Amino acid sequence: xxxxxxxxxxxxxxxxxxxxxxxxxxxxxxxxxxxxxxxxxxxxxxxxxxxxxxxxxxxxxxxx
Length: 64
Hints:
Elements: H1 24-50
């Protein structure tokens, strides 16, 4: 007896979660996180304009 359904079964889709009510502490944490991400993005952009660090990278010893 063969069936058309072969292979692995796909899991059922989970129901969508309701959006939770955010209190003031949660809102403050989200805002702080966004501000930190924005600051990091600005720092990355600033660092990429300057180029690499002044060092020559890893130095190899003369021994083989």
